[in-house]
């Protein structure tokens, strides 16, 4: 955070999802990887621009005590490696949905977001730039709940510190909220049978723009638009074009490695250039493979949706802004290994990096 304030137009806080207890440095590496992808796109396609964005990793999991070591104590010794993996990753979902610990998780993330923002502002008191959030997986749900003030059925009296943090809210306004591989719509669907109106789900104060970005093969990601207007289940998400802005365009290959110790996925989205148009993209509930959240609510992904209706929504139902954005399939849908890895494949995806960059600075494409 030593840059001159005039050098940075936009701050983006990068919020992780589950699994950071096992590797607290992972979000730092992923943020560096995504930052390098964005920098490459900026230098390759917008070398003359003076705009600059800085990405700050937000590691909120390691500071939380939650149940102490109770879960570890009750874990049998059989298949320890798998059990430890589940305890350090999937358990975060149970913690957050728990009436005992959900508030503590929200307070922990909110505290860390405000700490990083205040640290930057204290060093640059005259800075007047914008702030956005790039969240992954469960992190999308927690950020949403912090901004909207959702408390949940907490059965444990909150501590004075937790109450004070919740009342203070975030110290900044979110310009854009980018959700990567987000299960947010499932959480919202399970909290209320039918939203009374769109404002209940997407309040104006949440952010200026909301982007739900996902890969067809991601088993954790779900759409937002059909939650607001059911007719959107028959309308495909907006297809994110290949980086560079033109579908099918021949472009220079990006660097294979970025010096962060992690290799890109083989057969990644950036290695295959498809030419199917957005209107030809099928609603692929079958190709997406198994769904983790299908275990929570069975049957959501068992039927193909009929897309033959010409006008599935009325003029008064049309959303003012599209919310769902899908990446090119890239041939990953029928391979279960790639299906699982698709949930973490956003960090080194140049299509995502280019999309985020041009949404942070819309004038780049004008």
TrEMBL record:
Source domain of life: Eukaryota
InterPro entries (alphabetical): DDHD_dom, PA-PLA1
PROSITE patterns: DDHD
GO function term, MF aspect, one: metal ion binding
Pfam families: DDHD (PF02862)
Region (Disordered): 251-285
Domain DDHD: 170-362
One GO term describing the cellular component: cytoplasm
Record family assignment: Belongs to the PA-PLA1 family.
The protein's name: DDHD1_0 protein
């Amino acid at each position: 955070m030593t840059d001159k304030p005039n050098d940075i137009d936009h701050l983006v806080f990068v919020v992780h999802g589950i699994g950071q207890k096992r590797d607290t440095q992972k979000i730092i590496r992923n943020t560096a990887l995504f930052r390098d992808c964005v920098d490459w796109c900026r230098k390759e396609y917008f070398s003359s621009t003076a705009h600059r964005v800085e990405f700050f990793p937000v590691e909120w999991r390691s500071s939380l005590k939650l149940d102490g070591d109770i879960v570890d104590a009750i874990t049998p010794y059989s298949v320890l490696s798998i059990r430890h993996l589940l305890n350090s990753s999937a358990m975060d979902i149970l913690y957050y949905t728990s009436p005992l610990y959900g508030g503590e998780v929200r307070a922990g993330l909110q505290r860390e977001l405000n700490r990083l923002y205040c640290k930057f502002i204290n060093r640059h008191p005259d800075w007047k730039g914008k702030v956005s959030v790039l969240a992954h997986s469960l992190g999308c749900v927690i950020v949403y709940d912090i901004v909207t003030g959702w408390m949940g059925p907490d059965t444990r009296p909150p501590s004075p510190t937790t109450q004070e943090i919740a009342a203070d809210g975030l110290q900044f306004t979110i310009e854009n909220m980018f959700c990567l591989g987000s299960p947010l719509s499932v959480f919202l669907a399970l909290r209320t049978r039918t939203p009374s109106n769109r404002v209940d789900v997407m309040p104006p104060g949440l952010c200026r723009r909301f982007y739900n970005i996902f890969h067809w093969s991601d088993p954790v990601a779900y759409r937002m638009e059909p939650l607001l207007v059911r007719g959107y289940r028959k309308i495909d998400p907006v297809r994110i074009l290949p980086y560079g802005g033109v579908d099918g365009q021949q472009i220079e290959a990006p660097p294979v490695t970025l010096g962060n110790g992690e290799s890109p996925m083989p057969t990644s989205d950036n290695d295959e250039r498809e030419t199917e148009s957005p209107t030809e993209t099928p609603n692929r509930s079958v190709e997406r493979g198994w769904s983790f959240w299908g275990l929570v609510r069975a049957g959501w992904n068992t039927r193909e949706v009929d897309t033959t209706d010409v006008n599935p929504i009325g003029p008064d139902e049309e959303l003012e802004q599209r919310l769902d954005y899908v990446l090119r399939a890239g041939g990953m849908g029928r391979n279960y290994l790639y299906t699982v890895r698709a949930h973490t494949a956003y960090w080194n995806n140049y299509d995502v990096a280019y999309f985020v960059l041009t949404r942070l600075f819309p004038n780049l494409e004008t």
